[in-house]
Structures are given as C-alpha cells and as structure tokens.
Amino acid sequence: MVLVLVGTLLLLLALEFPVAFAMTGASAVYILLQGDIPLVVMAQRVTVGVDSFVLLAIPFFFLAGELMNQGGITQRLMNLAQALVGGIRGGLGHVTVVTNMIMAGMSGSSVADATGTGAVLIPAMERAGYPRVFSAALVGAASTIGPVIPPSIPFVIYGGITGISVGRLFLGGVVPGLLMGLFMMAAVYVVAQRRGYRAEGWLTLPEALRSIWRAIPVMLFPVIILGGIFGGIVTPTEAAVIAVVYAVFLALLVYRELTPRRLLRVLTTVAANTAKITFIIASASLYGWLLAREGVPQLFTNLFLSISREPWAILLMLNVLLVLLGCLMETTALLVILTPVLMDLITQVGIDPVHFGVVFTLNLMIGLLTPPVGMTLYVMVSLAEVSVGEFTRECAIFMLALLVVLILITYIPGLVTFLPEMVMGR
Amino acid sequence: MQKLLDHAIGWILAANLGFMTSLVFVSVLFRYVLNRPLAWTEELASLLFAWLTFVGAYVGFRTRSHIRIDTLTILLPPSVRRTIRACVDLCVLALLAIFVWQGFTLTVTTWSLEFPAMEISRGYLYASLPIGACLMVLGILLTRRDPDAAGQKQDRA
C-alpha cells in the first residue's frame, strides 16, 4: 500500500496534475483501495490543514512585499544600497546583492523579491553597461536571500507543519542569510575583476547622507517586524500584519505612489497567489496524514539509518537528495511533502530541527534557480528576456557561492543555532 | 456572465484579505493599546483563511496558473499533451466532486459543533471546501470552453 500511495503521487505529478490535486488524487486512490478509512476524512483533513493562524502569515508577508514593489519603496532601497557599496568594483552588482539583503528583512518570498528588485535593477544595470544576462542571473541568485533572512514564508510553512517556533527559525536564518550576501558579493567581485566591470564611484558625503535619510522610514520595517517578534510582543503573523499596515501607510500617504485602485489590485493578486500555495498545504495535510498512517517516515528513517547513523553523513545524503529533488520539483511542494517525512529521521539522529529547517530552506532556494523546475529562474528569464541556458551558465558562479554557504551551515550548526539560543534560550 | 463571476470572485478575495488584515491588526491594538484581548479574532481570521484558500483556487484554474510540474510532459508532442490535459481535467473534476459531496456531508454532520470563542457553528469552516470546490468546477469548465479568455499565459511549474 505504501507503493500505491507514493507511486500514484509520482505518476500524477508526472502527468502534470496541479500539485495539490496530485496529492489529493493519490490520497483518494489509496483510501478507496484501502477501504477502511471513511471518505469524509478527505474533506476534513484538507479543511483543517488551512484552519491555521500560523499560516496566515503567508498572505501577509506576500502582501508586504508586493506593496513595497508597488509603492516605490524598492527604488529607495536601491539608492540606499548605492550609498553603501556602490564604490566597490562591480558597483551595481554589489548594490543588487545589498538591495536584496535589505529587502529580505521585509519580505518573505524570493519570487516577489526577484520581480520587484529585477524591475528596478536590471534596467539600471543595463544603462551602466552590464550584460543583461549577468544582471538577471545576479538578481535571481540574490533574491534567494529573501526567505533565509527573516521574515520568511518557507520558515512559516516549516514551522506550521512541525510545530517548531517560527521565531527561532527566523533568528536561525539571520547569520546564514548574511553569509549568502557576503559570498555572493565575493562572486560579483571575482566576475567584475575578470571582465573589467568598473566601480560606480562613491557618492559624495551629502548625497550619501541624503540617500540614507530618505531610506530611514523604510528601514523601520525590519525593526518593526523583527523587534516585534523577538521582543516577544507579537507572533510572526501579527508582525506580518503590522508590516502590511505600515507599508500601506508609507506607500499611500508618505511616498504617495500607491492609489486605492492599485491597492485593490494588489489585494486580489496576493489573495489568488496565496491560494495556490495554501491549497497545496491543505492537500499535503491529508497526504502527510496518510503517509504517517502507513509508517512512511519510519521506513525512510530506517533506510537512512541502515546506511549510516552519523549526523554528518545523514546531512550529506539529505543535502544531495534535496539539491537533486530541487531541480525536479517545485519548492513549496517539496517542503510540504518532505517535512513530515524527514522530521522522524532528524529527531532520531539528534539533529536540531531549527538547524535542519534552515539547511532545508537553503536547499530549496538553490532549487529555485536550477532548471528544469525553478520558479525564480523562470521569472528572471521572462523578465530579462534571456534564454534558460544563458541564465544557467551565468548563474553558475553564484550557485557555487550558495553551495559553499550550504556546506558551511550544514557542518557548523552553530552558525544557525547560536542566535536563537542566545535570544530565546535553549 | 463569466466576466461577472471573475470580477465578483476578485472582489470577494480582495475584501476577504483586506478584512483579515484589519481584523488581526485590530486584535493587536485591543491587546496592547486597550489592554482588552479579543478571544475570537484568531478563530475568525483562520476561518477566513480557509475560505480565501478554497475560493482563491478558482482563480488558479481561470488563469491556468496552478503549480504543475511539466518536466516530463514537455518532452511529448503537443497533441498528446493536449489529450493528457483533458484527462487530467476530468480526474480533477472527479476529485472536486468528492470534495463537494464529502464537504457538504461534513458541514451537515458538524453543524451542531461550535467554535469555543466565537460560539458559531464549525459548519461555517467546513462549508468553505464544498463551496470553493463548486467554484473550481465552474472555473475548469469555463476555461475549457473558452481557452483564449484565460489568456495565453504559459503555466510553468
């Protein structure tokens, strides 16, 4: 029966079923063949799967990111980044990385960041003489910092499924996210050196101060979100709402670049995009329940343990598996299907679930950039009008940077766990 | 007619998300500013979230933008791919029929149960799935009948 459950899912996915229906379809086939589970369980598990206050943070973090893109906030971030790092060789390249890092502190979705910063940065880099495919690859790679530096939609989903504190996961992502930015800037520097990209030149002091001054209202975002959560004042969901209200306030009243009409359109788009993801989560709640009933997590655990009992070896195998699966599968689908299966293994070999959550997410982020299935890849390819092959070649060095960070955080767990343990205790 | 439906759903979704946002914001205000926490806001917001999910899934069918994995099917000739698509749509309709049927059953059987804080029937939560599934059926049928109106958007996974 395990074969029916898993085999049907793979078959339906391969036939291009919508992911949510591949999961409910496999569940339906299993329930009908099994015969001892009432069919009403399908409706019950699916509904209860999204009756969750934690998951509510997803539309709110989406909304905050989208409002920033529409409200002219991204442009101000870029000006700030220019003041900070524009003078280094490969200037606008570093500006791209830093803009995405700051953006990461406010939005939780790589795809939203890629669209938002890409629309501003790719034209700017083209004017400065950078090849378009380089800019596209860089924006795509840099946008993957978004969900690692808090807030983060994948962390919310992982926390929602496992019951692990989303606040801890958020804190765990801080250092790895900064490392991603650092290594990516190093990669930009290497490319710039080799191809002779120049620096943009430092801004004069008054200019720089003005950019910083004008970005201060925007910089309050991360302070509100992260301060609120880690100060123990609000839950991540509530912090996300406060961020949305603040974004509306800034865009509508302070920068005046958002009209009520556009606000309405943003609401509709965000709601529809949220539904696509949460419907998958709802279906996964049914499918995951059946997997657990069949003892699949234990089978999986035993399979891994039969190869090795060493945490480092398990982590190595998981990383290889996840990078490969990340090429073939969509990230949300991978996250919701695998999380319940892997938790058993993780706890048995004594790997910190917060540590693993961050490692898992970074794997998924790499998966966003790899063909044949990578959301961010396709967003960038269509935004910059370059080919998938060109993009992938150009992106290789940034992927290498991400892989180095992945290895670092996998084998030095302290990089992830130090901050949450310091702030929130063990 | 279908334009009207699309617009209506768009409005409902926007209103739902807008209301959810205000609701959670107000509950934070009540807790910290007025020092009078509201017990029912989390329940209501989660309930609205379920409605957002199942009603919002309609849009995914209208724009053919539900997440799918086309790694393998992309290798097939277009005619075969179209046939597979038609079969997939049929299977999805069958699944939706199960959701409508079992969802209504569940709504009816749980009607007497209440949310602890809101003191309204849990049926309001469970009704979101069958009603959303009805809309999704409509969404699939409308999009099949008139593929151009759904836009040419390529749905990459």
What tags apply to this protein structure?
heterodimer, A: 426 residues, mainly alpha, 20 helices, B: 157 residues, elongated
Radius of gyration of chain B: 19 Å
Write down the oligomeric state: heterodimer
What structural category do the secondary elements of chain A indicate? mainly alpha
Shape category of chain A = globular
Estimate the strand proportion of chain B.
under 5%
Number of H- or I-type helical stretches of chain B: 5
Which percent bin holds the helix content of chain B?
55-70%
String of helices and strands of chain A:
HHHHHHHHHHHHHHHHHHHH
Number of strands of chain B: 0
- The first-to-last residue Cα distance of chain B is 30 Å
Biggest protein-protein interface? A-B, 60 and 60 residues
Quote the distance from N terminus to C terminus of chain A.
Answer: 40 Å
> What is the radius of gyration of chain A computed over CA atoms, rounded to a whole number of angstroms?
22 Å
SS class of chain B: mainly alpha
Calculate the mean pLDDT score of chain B and round it: 87
**Helix fraction bin of chain A:** over 70%
Count of DSSP strands of chain A:
0
